[in-house]
Structures are given as C-alpha cells and as structure tokens.
Amino acid sequence: MARYSRSASKDVEREMRKRKKGTLRSGKGGKGGKVKSRKQAIAIGLSEARRKGKKVPPKRKSSRKSKRKSSRKSKR
Length: 76
Known about the structure:
Layout: H1 6-21, H2 38-51, H3 64-75
C-alpha cells in the first residue's frame, strides 16, 4: 500500500473540501471546469502535494495495452 506523508493527506483533504463546497476547478491555474468527481479531487490534491515536494509516490504510468486500444478505436 502506498504511504503518504501527513501533510500530503492534508492537501488532499483541503481539495476534497473545496470540491464539496463547489469551488474546486480543474486545469492550469483553475481555469477549467468545475470538478465533480471524487477521484479527480484526490488526484488534484496529490499533484499539489507532489509540487510542494511532499512524500507522495510518483504518478502511475498507463499501460501499453490501453494505449494501443485507444489508438485502434480512433483509426476506425
């Protein structure tokens, strides 16, 4: 199981509260649309923690198989 620092979990918690309040926005500088997804709010919180240099595991890389499937669908 991944281990996060306490301060990283506080960042995630802050983003979750923003989502619940309805003020969390996606994109660079918060110029995108409103975030409604719980998973997306967690991802934003973790990326913020990474940017600040807190103890958070690196971003998970997507598998080659899923990349191939998506490229095949777009060719059809």
